[in-house]
Backbone:
């Protein structure tokens, strides 16, 4: 009897593994067609070999990822291109991808910009307005240089407060105030926003829209499709971790699977299954 049970368990495990591989393989095949799969928006923070944190990628690892995108025929597009695709159905180049950086660390200027230029890639930097000209962040002059050399500057709020955790009376200053401050530094319209930590709600989205932003981004895993809420767009966060290249590859090609696993983890936590949630492998 025990042998029969063990065999059945083994068959179930094999079947689950087979289904998983078929599912991931199907996603990989579809990931080259943005009209079906959506447009990936990658989310980075720091890239350097000096200051390491959970948000930092090694320079060699970031270079390896950009080399992969280049060899696989991905084309970086601007947020203006993405907005036109969502709202007007604009045709995009084959394998479009958006690369974004949050906060505005100095290594974005010193380490990232030369790497992107070597592959003729463009990106967006979501800048914290009150971090400009401060230690370990870019200066106003560096931002101007980046904006003129393939790095579009957009907003990451005024003071980088997690909006749903602070007094709602501060939201206008964070969102509209951050936009106005950054426009003063840059001398150009600021049209796009990334919420700190991705935290937002319906009222924050309303303020964002009324402040003149065209789109706003979270850190919820997924790819961007025309049917998405313009003020709660998904991004694929890329960190160092234990398996940075595998995580990057899976997030790029299997975004729906990543989104499902993270959502399942959160659901388990919210319903009191903390231990089970902590056992889940997340990439």
Residues:
């Amino acid at each position: 009897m025990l042998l029969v049970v063990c065999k059945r368990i083994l068959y179930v495990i094999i079947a689950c593994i087979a289904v998983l591989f078929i599912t991931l393989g199907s996603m990989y095949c579809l990931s080259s067609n943005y009209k079906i799969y959506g447009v990936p928006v990658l989310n980075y923070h720091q890239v350097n070999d000096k200051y390491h944190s959970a948000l930092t990628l090694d320079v060699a690892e970031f270079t390896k990822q950009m080399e992969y995108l280049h060899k696989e025929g991905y084309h970086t597009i601007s947020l203006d291109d993405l907005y036109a695709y969502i709202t007007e159905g604009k045709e995009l180049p084959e394998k479009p991808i958006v690369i974004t950086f949050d906060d505005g660390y100095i290594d974005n200027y010193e380490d990232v910009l030369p790497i992107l230029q070597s592959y003729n890639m463009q990106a967006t930097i979501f800048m914290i307005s009150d971090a400009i000209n401060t230690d370990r962040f870019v200066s106003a002059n560096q931002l101007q240089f980046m904006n003129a050399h393939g790095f579009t500057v957009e907003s990451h709020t005024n003071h980088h407060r997690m909006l749903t955790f602070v007094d709602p009376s501060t939201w206008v200053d964070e969102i509209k105030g951050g936009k106005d401050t950054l426009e003063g530094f840059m001398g150009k319209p600021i049209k796009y926003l990334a919420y700190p930590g991705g935290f937002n709600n319906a009222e924050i989205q309303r303020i964002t829209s009324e402040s003149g932003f065209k789109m706003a981004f979270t850190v919820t895993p997924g790819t961007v499709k025309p049917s998405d809420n313009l003020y709660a767009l998904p991004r694929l966060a890329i960190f160092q971790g234990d398996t940075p290249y595998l995580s990057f590859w899976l997030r790029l090609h299997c975004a729906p699977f990543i989104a499902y696993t993270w959502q399942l983890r959160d659901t388990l936590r919210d319903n009191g299954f903390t231990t089970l949630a902590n056992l889940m492998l997340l990439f």
Remarks:
- The chain is about 45% helix and 15% strand.
- Residues 2-30 form the longest helix (29 residues).
